[in-house]
Every structure is written in structure tokens, then in C-alpha cells.
Amino acid sequence: MSLLPAALAPIAVQHSDVLVLDALTRYVAQSGMQIGERLPPERVLAEQLAVSRNTVREALKRWETLGIIVRRKGSGTFLQAEVTSNDSFLSLRFKNDSQNMLHALEVRRIIEAESCSLAAVRATVDDLLLIERRLQEMERVHLAVGSAGAEDWLFHASIYQAAHNPLLLHMVVGLYDTLHAFFESPPEQALFSDSFPLHRTLFEAIHQRDADEAKRVSHLILDITERDMKDVIHAARKA
Asked: What is the pTM of this model?
């Protein structure tokens, strides 16, 4: 079948496997590829997306884990699940891995609420300055483009660091691999904008050394995340 190079324009951010998968989603949908058909070779995908072959390989591993594709040694990579023009990496993940996503959010809630509480007690002056800088950058980007996934992650990471328990940060970094679609998939980030103003409220609670309030606001933010996750899951299942 035709490779339809016009459907695979180079992407701006070369390190994001999620952006690669969103580009591949558009390509598969626009080309009319059917289940059982073979995707172009990794070399061709890398060239047309202007990313490294390793980036494409890592991205395809994610699709393989979700059952979107199957890779057969010596034969190539084959589509084995329906992909539509309305899909993205996040929606495909919800269709195929929604229960695990909710479980991961549940664990994140446990870790994050306690991290915010500890940060309110343990944060140094330098920690507070870093959290505030990360917050200001998140706010700047969000107000400019309507989403700030990477900046949001850095803001939360600075709070985990301020808890001064390296195991907490290590655990959350492990979860990030499961949850990072939320931080990197632009079309869905607008869904979580209701929690945007609460991030400053969270910083203020930590700055004022109010551990109980920090924990409470953390739960409010994650309540909104969970609500919106379930809405997206429901919509993905209906698609």
C-alpha cells in the first residue's frame, strides 16, 4: 500500500514518544489502514517524522503493550486494533488499559497527598522558591497555549522533592511512565483545566506550612483528575 508521506509530517518535539504515536494515529486513520495490514518500516517512519529510529521503536513498544500492533520478527509490524481519526495515544490507552490507569491514579493520590503534607513541613526556602518558579512557568504556559503538561509535571515533582523522602519521588517517577500521557498529549489537557487555579492554592498552603490544607487541596486536584479521566474513559469506550 502507499506510504502517504503527506500524512506523516515532521513533528516539533523529537523526544516525545507520545507525540510520535499521535502522529502515527493520524497516519493510520487517514490512510485507511485495516487490521492485519503492515505499517511502514521503522526507518521510513523515523525519516518522515524527523525523529530517531530509537524514538519510533520505543513508541511502537507502547502500542504493542496495548495490543494496538503486533511485531513479527522478520515480517514487520502489523495493525491489530481499530484506530480512528478521533483517537490519540491517551484515548487508545483508555480503550485498552483504563483499569490500570485508574489504579495508577489511586496510588498517585496516596503518594501525592502525603508528599504535599510533608512538603508543607519540610520544605526549605530554596524548595519553596523552586516550587514557586515551577508554578509560575506552568501558569505562563497554560495561559498562553491552554495546556502545560510538562510544566505541570515539573511543578508536582518539585513538591515531591520538597518532601525530602527520596523514595516518594522514586515511586512517583515509576508511576509517571503509566500516567505521562496526561502530561504529554495536548488534545486532552484542556479537560483538566478545572484544577488549574488549585495549583496556586496548593502552593500557598505549602508556603504557609499548613500540612492539612496542602493535603486537602491535593485531594481536590486529584478528584478533578479522576472525574475527567472517567469521562474520557467513558467517551473512548463509546467511540
From this structure: 0.65
